[in-house]
Amino acid sequence: MAGSANVASYEAIHRFDFEAAKRWQEWAVPFHARTSGPFSVIYGYCLSGLAESELLNVQQAEHYYRKAYDLARRSGGHRSYTTRLAGTMLGESLYEQGHLDDAERLLDECSELGSEGGVVDFMVATYGTGSRIKALRGDIVAAARRLDEGTQIATALSLPRLAARIENERTRWQIAPVQYPPAMTAVRGPSDATARTSHPINGVTEVTTELHEDSAIRRLLASGNSGDAAQAHQRAGKLVARATALHRPRAVLRASLLHVVTTRRVKAEHDALDALVPLIAQCFHLGLIRPLCDEGPTLTQLVATLAELREARQWKPGWPAVPTTFLCAVLASSTDTSPPPAPH
Fold this sequence. Notes:
This protein is mainly alpha-helical and 344 residues long. The chain has 17 helices and no strands. Among the domains are: 1-98, Alpha Horseshoe (Serine Threonine Protein Phosphatase 5, Tetratricopeptide repeat), CATH 1.25.40; 113-173. Helix 7 (120-136) runs antiparallel to helix 8 (140-157) and helix 13 runs antiparallel to helix 14 (269-286).
């Protein structure tokens, strides 16, 4: 029964019914307690963490990931298979909060598992986030190697979602190969998205398409063409609307930050600042650093402008409060860790 609950939780997560995924794990508690080994319990904790993470319940997600990691270490030791799997999800959570050293160690350990590295959600963290940390360290060779490993696994096992995440990292860091998969040419607008939420959602397909679209938007921005920037802005807005319609808080935050970047390219700075401040306030309350840093120089410059306004006591009355210390922490984390500037 514990294993069945895990399958049901996983299925619920990938139709974006995160509350249902949590309920399955609550229902499975007595069954997990009666299992002979820790594997199903560890997976259950990770699934609970994943559901909380998608809801942007950051501390709750880390709580479950730590429970999984601690149980795996107690039952199997530091180098066990389950310890490395649980460490992957914990590493992803720590990365987003700006703890790069611990995150890198945990993700490196799981990369040694290769194609045995768990379900796709684990692999996305191992090869996507793992490669990003290498790039942030300035080790593009190691980042490219990790991406190549991910590509090989995605190809061998026919994992389109992993392949899309790998391609997204290549796009962000301009790491070869330069042959891109076909990008989505259009995203359903808010009305279409709302109309379809009554039908079953294939979350794997949805996220794969979303990643391809994110990559396409970034390539449009990198072209330096004003028409491309306008198209990127429109498409980023549709990503936000789609994620909002599907009640996916983490996806909304991610798409909204990209939309801010496109806003700065096509509108005045104050328009981008007005859109950014509520997102920064949200990240502050959640303890998230890296989502802000990872959008690159355009967003970093906006954060720097906000820090200056804060210091000069020119914070707009309608903006939510954000401590200067948090703005400075974002800037410090962004130093020498932004993707290379877009070619013009």
